[in-house]
């Protein structure tokens, strides 16, 4: 009897990777940052590179106050908590970080998770159980899909950013059943934003609770940087806001804020909160310091938007195909026709001194190959000029643009 090789299912992927690297050049999924000089500059293979694929939107990773807060907590509270939030893993720093989130969002409750991935996993799998429904956008982030898998609810998908399809699908569900609609402010593959106002109105019409993942909206959308929902005037209308510390906040961690009166019970029943160690004291201290500063970061928000509009406009003018017609967020996705051109462009850009993210199916919608650019408030005007020049050079060298 021949026993199935557990790894045989990965053969197609191994073949794709071989093909990807067969023309030489660097492996897009094995980049090492040898030194990180600032939120926007690093050394890769001994050469200085501009970083344009970090989601470090507000450039908080090297903020002196943030670093000082982390150093102080590391010295005073040690390297880690070695425990769950519900046992020995809640320090005063975790509570202070939750207070900062409550102030930032103007909400009653905040729960800090060890990552944003776990925040979605925990909230979705815990809120909706057997006989209940989770309704998600087809292009939802992997953590939303995995949250659905972890729970016992029925999962319904609607067409990406289509209020009509959401309405149609909700109308088919039993009226009395509990329902959770999960939305994202910014969809991170193409950088497009959701028509949240229409979506929220429809979810409410069908008596569903609403969870909005603002991973890519926090920091720079809305007057207080709360996210796309704030920008669109939807405050007070969303039941749960999920977010991450790994983008605008500049460290690692996840959270959910809410005004739901029973919210605190989740600390006892949410498995990805209970059955894992809490964040190290230095991390929650950096997150708290960063969140407090982001509240007042209007100049940075403005500069980030200027950068995003300039890069989008410049790339569009050169003739690149982009994920959105106009700059909708700080993510600008350059769409390439196939893997070969995408990898060639990616490698060429890195040689010239620019790091972007390469994204390929199945992570991307509709089988697309993307070079995802995410701007930072710390990119200078000169950086953006240089970035545009590198795109032009790489585009011409690879034949993506006419020479
Ligand atoms: N939600 C969305 C929309 C994301 O893009 C991400 C991360 N890419 C997450 C959640 C998970 O965040 P974290 O990195 O904190 O796990």
From TrEMBL:
Keywords: Acyltransferase, Pyridoxal phosphate, Transferase. Its EC number is 2.3.1.47. Residues 48-389 form the Aminotransferase class I/classII large domain. The keyword NADP does not apply. Its cofactor is pyridoxal 5'-phosphate. InterPro entries: Aminotrans_II_pyridoxalP_BS, Aminotransferase_I/II_large, AON_synthase_class-II, PyrdxlP-dep_Trfase, PyrdxlP-dep_Trfase_major, PyrdxlP-dep_Trfase_small. Pfam families: Aminotran_1_2 (PF00155). This is 8-amino-7-oxononanoate synthase. It comes from the Bacteria. PANTHER family: CLASS II AMINOTRANSFERASE/8-AMINO-7-OXONONANOATE SYNTHASE, LD36009P. PROSITE patterns: AA_TRANSFER_CLASS_2 (PS00599). Belongs to the class-II pyridoxal-phosphate-dependent aminotransferase family. The keyword Hydrolase does not apply. GO terms for molecular function: 8-amino-7-oxononanoate synthase activity; pyridoxal phosphate binding.
């Amino acid at each position: 009897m021949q026993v199935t090789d557990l790894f045989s299912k990965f053969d197609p992927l191994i073949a794709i990777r071989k093909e990807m690297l067969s023309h030489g050049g660097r492996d897009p999924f094995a980049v090492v940052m040898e030194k990180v000089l600032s939120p926007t500059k690093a050394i890769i293979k001994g050469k200085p590179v501009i970083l344009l694929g970090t989601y470090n939107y507000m450039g908080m990773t090297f903020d002196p106050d943030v670093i000082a807060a982390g150093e102080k907590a590391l010295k005073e509270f040690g390297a880690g908590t070695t425990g769950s939030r519900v046992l020995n893993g809640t320090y005063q720093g975790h509570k202070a970080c939750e207070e900062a989130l409550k102030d930032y969002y103007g909400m009653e409750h905040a729960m800090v998770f060890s990552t944003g991935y776990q925040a979605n996993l925990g909230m979705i799998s815990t809120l909706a159980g057997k006989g209940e429904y989770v309704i998600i956008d087809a292009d939802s982030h992997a953590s939303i899909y995995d949250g659905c898998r972890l729970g016992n609810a029925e999962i319904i998908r609607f067409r990406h950013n289509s209020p009509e399809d959401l309405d149609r699908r909700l109308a088919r569900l039993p009226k009395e059943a509990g329902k959770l609609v999960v939305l994202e402010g910014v969809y991170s593959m193409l950088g497009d934003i959701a028509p949240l106002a229409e979506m929220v109105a429809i979810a409410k019409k069908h008596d569903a609770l609403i969870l909005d993942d603002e991973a890519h909206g926090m920091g720079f959308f809305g007057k207080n940087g709360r996210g796309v929902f704030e920008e669109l005037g939807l405050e007070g209308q969303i039941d749960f806001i999920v977010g991450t510390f790994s983008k605008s906040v500049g460290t690692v961690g996840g959270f959910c804020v809410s005004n739901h009166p029973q919210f605190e019970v989740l600390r006892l029943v949410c498995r990805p909160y209970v059955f894992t160690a809490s964040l190290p004291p230095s991390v929650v201290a950096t997150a708290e310091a960063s969140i407090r500063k982001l509240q007042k970061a209007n100049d940075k928000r403005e500069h980030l938007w200027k950068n995003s509009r300039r890069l989008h406009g410049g790339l569009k003018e050169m003739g690149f195909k982009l994920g959105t017609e106009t700059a909708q967020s700080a993510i600008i996705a350059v769409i390439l026709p196939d893997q070969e051109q995408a990898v060639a462009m990616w490698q060429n850009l890195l040689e010239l001194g620019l790091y972007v993210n390469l994204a390929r199916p199945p992570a991307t919608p509709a089988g697309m190959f993307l070079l995802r650019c995410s701007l930072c408030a710390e990119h200078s005007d000169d950086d953006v000029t240089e970035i545009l020049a590198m795109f032009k050079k790489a585009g011409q060298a690879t034949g993506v643009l006419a020479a």
